[in-house]
Amino acid sequence: KSLSRSSVRSRMSLKPPKAYNSLQKGALIWDPKPLQVKKIFEALKKGLNEYLEAHQAELDYLSGRHKDTKRNSRLAFYYDLDKQIRSVERYIRKLEFHISKVEELYEAYCIQCRLRDGATNMKQAFALSPATKASRESLVELYKNVQECTEDMCFIEGALEVHLGEFHVKMKGLVGFARLCPGDQYEVFVRLGRQKWRLKGKIETDDSQTWDEEEKIFIPNLHEKFEIKVTELRGLATILVGVVTCDSINFFTTKPQAIIVDITELGTIKLRLEVLW
């Protein structure tokens, strides 16, 4: 166990990643979620491979043009194309390293998860056996092993979270048909963990909408979902329209995702967002 744990720590910085919310300000959350981490890892790896395939296709296209240009075009244009090819090649190497790092972290996470499960099962078995000095000592050691594996899993979750990239969320407006009238004012509150976005909008006389903000960058979180709350502003009073949650697992893709969320139970008011990873 100690050899495995030291190998995990030797491959990563001993300092908790700053972007991992649960490791900030000493507020450790000793509750790793292997099933959620597995879902995020698979979605992340799929999205990274999509980016890799897209840039590899671009490189193939540029390389083909590069050969033709060398024979038939101006020297300046040839060097400009050569510069583009080198740029794409560097980005591909960066993506390949990113994918390998994510795979390495997840492999280490799975090892610690299996070690923790094994120690937990042994602890339960010893707890049911007759109480002796040897069994009590074993229970103490097993409890220590479970705690250490849990700590390592939380640490790796933090390191993995640093590699999740960014979500660029754009406000596309409310859809409400007869529910939205000129002059109505609304407030939309979007939260992802500790990250918050509060924006206000108004329905104009031509049924268009104006919002005080149009885009916000969120750092993806392994355990948190998007929470969206919409309220209607009427003078000094506010009326809650609805509160919904939205999982971010489908956002790890190369193409912008158009999201339409039912704010009310009957879907009479919807919120339109666009998410680009």
From TrEMBL:
Annotated FAM65 N-terminal domain residues: 2-277
Pfam families xref list: PL48
Coiled coil region boundaries: none
Entry similarity comment: Belongs to the RIPOR family.
Name of protein: RIPR3 protein
Gene encoding the protein: Ripor3
